[in-house]
Amino acid sequence: DTEVTQTPKHLVMGMTNKKSLKCEQHMGHRAMYWYKQKAKKPPELMFVYSYEKLSINESVPSRFSPECPNSSLLNLHLHALQPEDSALYLCASSQADRGSSYEQYFGPGTRLTVT
Amino acid sequence: GQNIDQPTEMTATEGAIVQINCTYQTSGFNGLFWYQQHAGEAPTFLSYNVLDGLEEKGRFSSFLSRSKGYSYLLLKELQMKDSASYLCAVRGEYGGSQGNLIFGKGTKLSVKP
């Protein structure tokens, strides 16, 4: 199983809503990532979890709150977003052991629209 | 600072060979990846280089020169389905064991009949 799943596929939310994006993998990967991708731009790293601990936060605004409840799941909680936060949110996972290739497997993404 | 450069767009003919170049300047280097991304879809892994030289995988090959901060992706026997964006990404180093990737802006390849 080399699949990373993400739900929902599409999400429309207002600026006062609270919603969550979910990501799941069963490849035994201990590193999981959230990326944000705007149209015609490359993915931008937001957060990295390594062994269920937040190891990188790329100066992401606090209206985005990540959570890693266990080694297979990664959530991104959204609150009070702005229209400019509309984008494709990609989850990825990889091995985390030194010496591994760290090849990242991406999920299909959640297309988020903030109105 | 972090800088990864690749051409914005390229056009090639079905059945031909195309080379997509990537140059990088990053703080820390722990491998270079190439990903393919079709419009509206997630990136999919193509190749990984951490040592100098050529890695071949079917119709795709990738080359790395660490001393020059340079890589290329070579696509042979182009097919229409190869029309996509090709992303060069460098794994930096945050001092941990995770594989944070820094992506270039991507090269949009159009394959014409």
Q: Would you count the extended β strands of chain A for me?
A: 11
Largest protein interface, residues of each chain: A-B, 26 and 24 residues
Which residues of chain B sit in consecutive blocks of at least 5 with pLDDT less than 50? none
The portion of residues assigned to helices of chain B is under 10%
- What is the N-to-C order of secondary-structure elements of chain B (H for helix, E for strand)? EEEEEEEEEEE
Radius of gyration of chain A: 14 Å
Shape category of chain B: globular
Q: Helix/strand/pairing class of chain A, anyone?
A: mainly beta
Q: What overall geometry of chain A do the principal axes of the alpha carbons give?
A: globular
Commentary on this structure:
The complex is a heterodimer of chains A (115) and B (113). Helix content of chain A is 0%, strand content 56%. With 115 residues, chain A is mainly β. Chain A is globular. The N and C termini of chain A lie far apart (36 Å). Chain B is 0% helix and 55% strand. Chain B has strands at residues 3-5, 9-13, 18-25, 32-37, 44-49, 53-57, 60-65, 70-75, 84-91, 101-103, 107-112. Chain B is globular, with a radius of gyration of 14 Å. The termini of chain B are far apart. The chains are: A mainly beta (115), B mainly beta (113). Chain A binds chain B through residues 31, 33, 41-45, 48, 50, 55-56, 90, 94-98, 101-109, and chain B through 30-31, 33, 41-45, 48, 50, 87, 91, 94, 96-106.
Could you provide a short overview of the structure?
The complex is a heterodimer of chains A (115) and B (113). By secondary structure, chain A is mainly beta.
